[in-house]
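hey team, just a heads up i'm posting the complex here instead of the shared drive bc the drive is being weird again. everything in one block, sequence lines first with there labels, then the predicted structure for the whole assembly after. its two chains so it's a bit long, scroll down
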Amino acid sequence: MIHRFANPTRFLRLADRIQPWAAGLTVVLGGAGLYFALFSSPADYQQGETVRIMYIHVPSAWMALFCYTALAAACATALIWKHPLADLAARATAPIGACFTLLALATGSLWGKPMWGTWWVWDARLTSVLILFFLYLGYMALNGAFDDPERGQKASAILALVGFINVPIIKFSVDWWNTLHQPASVIKMGGPAIHPSMLTPLLLMAFAFKAYFVWVLLMRMRGEINAMKIRAVRLRQVHAAEATSADAGAATGEAR
Amino acid sequence: MTNFVTILRRDLRLSFRQGMDSLMVVMFFVIAVVLFPFGVGPEPNILARIAAGVIWVAALLASMLSLERLFQTDYEDGSLEILVLQPVSLEVVVAAKVTAHWLTTGLPLIAAAPLLAVLLNMDAGGFAILILALALGTPSLSLIGAIGAALILGARRGGVLLSLMVLPLYIPVLIFGVSAVDAALGGFAARPHLLILSGLLLATVALCPWVGAAALRQAMRS
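-- predicted structure starts here --
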């Protein structure tokens, strides 16, 4: 099944079909989510209006973890089955994930200032998310550090799999350590501990972010495929030029 | 096992012949720590408070600096290729090279640590725990670092890249290493932290040689 889409043309045809839907869902869900988040949901009785930061912060934090999981899965697929599109998917996922991680850190910092009285605390959740950000950066740096792109992909895939150990640590950091960051309140045993009026925009935004991820991922993968094509064409041109110049050299040599 | 010993002895002999290399790591360690009294001021209380953290961070950096040469020289002169072609499991090669790395860099760091602790005015009660924590932690650093060292083979600007990759993975060792010493200095039990450090060491011993070998294989294939 997964090898059906190893063919870039077939993949691009599927991507063409999915992309407009993903884009439309992003706009619709994001618009609805923002409306509910900014206008139609109540302010928190303790946190006041700042609670609205949650509707960006929480979905981007979820996406940060989701993207790294997707990255690790793509890297494992690339290493085990040598699936050609998995490499592309991994390379396209990393910058998106890094952006979501940065967004989660920045919004968290903005939220922390009025609520905790500080931009940053070194508690387990914040620190482990910061490490996640560094792992994304390390992955991207290693990926681009080789003259042979294939080497970079393999090496960085191994790094991504090693770094995956951080994902469960982030998830459970609020349970294992006694931290300032609050524990999970949406996905937990016994149902969400959050009122439906706030849960609705939160989930809408979460799905909007996910649709956005799919949209941008497909766009980036399309770009990667085109870059590969350009690279192949250039290499062919160089080889052709070398062959003709060698022929010309041989011809002049014979003339002498 | 004989293969392990052979490679270990070869690497040890190589590093002794080059002589200065492992000494330079210790010198870096000492100088990096000595910079702190200049940076934060010579008040004994402040220095005693940050001593454990400073020593650990400097040990981390020193151990990382020497990592680049773990596989690089063998990669450049082609002996790594021969090692890969031998009917020896590559995991054993990685384990042997990491052991040699630890013996030539980790052990000197542990030996130098008490001296630096004295310079930083650390309470004598923490010395034993500091040495114990370093003894448990530095092998993990070498093991984790071996993955990074294997991954950067053939990369541009490998050294900078190595720090970007390896330092985030070092953080758990740093956290529990420092908290063990701080616990001992504060009069709490250091045992749980040391146990976690041992757990980290066991996990890295079990996993890192395999990951490192996989990284070496892909480096050699292309």
